[in-house]
Amino acid sequence: SSRFKCDDDDTSHGFSVAAGETLTVFAKVYNEHSHLYFHSFYLETPAYYEASLASAYVEGSPPALYHAIVMGCLLFSLLFMSFLGWWFKEKNFLYYVMYIAGALLYLLPKTNSTYSYAGKLVFYVMPYYLQVSEGLQYVFYAAYVAFGASLVNAFAYRKLSVYIKTVIALFLLYAISITAYQFATHTYVLPSAGFVFIRLLTYVFCIVAGVWTVVQVKSPLKQFFLLASVIFIGFSAWAAVSNVYRSADSKPFFYITPMVALKTAVLLDSIVFAAALGYKMYLTEKEKRRHFQSYIQQLEVNEQLVRNMNVQLEQTVAERTAELEALS
């Protein structure tokens, strides 16, 4: 009816009804297999509605602000490193940009605030995002592994290179397969048992790759790789078990939500990796200066050799000339 006033705040649809007026409401769910999207109906006064909006804004502002900070830092890093990669033509920057792009795409809808453009975007893309988020996360993991291996030049070691490339291929194959499966079966939420098993298997692959790289690879950037791996695996493990910890104690003394843990891990890793790239560029420039100085020194040595040879030649010519004059 045109008399109904609908308020679209991207999370609910409300309408006002006059006293004594009746109506029939029809609701449409997204997916009958999932039980993820549900509709509830309740009555509230205008004063309670305004108070609930204010309360939701106060509670949602800190997480939304942190989300905005993380997204802003990652976006700046993506643009800046893309420029540096184009300028220096370094493959490491390409892998880093892929890693940051994957993190941005995966974390963008991870906000519970409806008072931002990202929050509004969540409302429209969430049904589709849930079907690609698992595959997208493993594309992000593959880019992470590729960048870490490229950073310390792990691909130069044959057996380690084969293992890392196999892990990357498995991550990408799983990403494609699970995305195709979710779209084909209209699945939004994966079974918890399979989800946990895949995550544990992923951690095992990554830990083996990290330990193998630290033990075998000889690189001045290995400490950056080790620090980033510890941060990522530690925060990811906390994100996996935090809900269990919260369920055991409804009001724990210390608690970080899984999304905050994951965002923090990505943010700290991006800082560590940016520092590692900067240090690698410093080492590359230092090596270039060393080769240039060696080249200059070699030119000076060659010039001195030519000068000595010319002096010796002049002496030889003078001596030979003197002998010829004496004979004549």
Tell me about this structure.
This protein is mainly alpha-helical and 328 residues long. It contains seven helices and two strands. It has helices spanning 46-88, 91-107, 117-151, 158-185, 192-216, 222-248, 258-327; strands at 7-8, 13-14. Strand 1 and strand 2 form a beta hairpin. Helix 1 (46-88) runs antiparallel to helix 2, helix 2 (91-107) packs antiparallel against helix 7 (258-327) and helix 3 (117-151) packs antiparallel against helix 4 (158-185). The longest helix is centred in the last third of the chain and has 70 residues, at 258-327. Mean pLDDT is 77; it is low at 1-11 and 30-39.
Kindly summarize this structure in a few lines:
This protein has 328 residues and is an all-alpha fold.
List keywords for this structure.
75% helix; elongated; 2 strands; 1% strand; mainly alpha; two-stranded antiparallel sheet; disordered N terminus; single chain; 328 residues
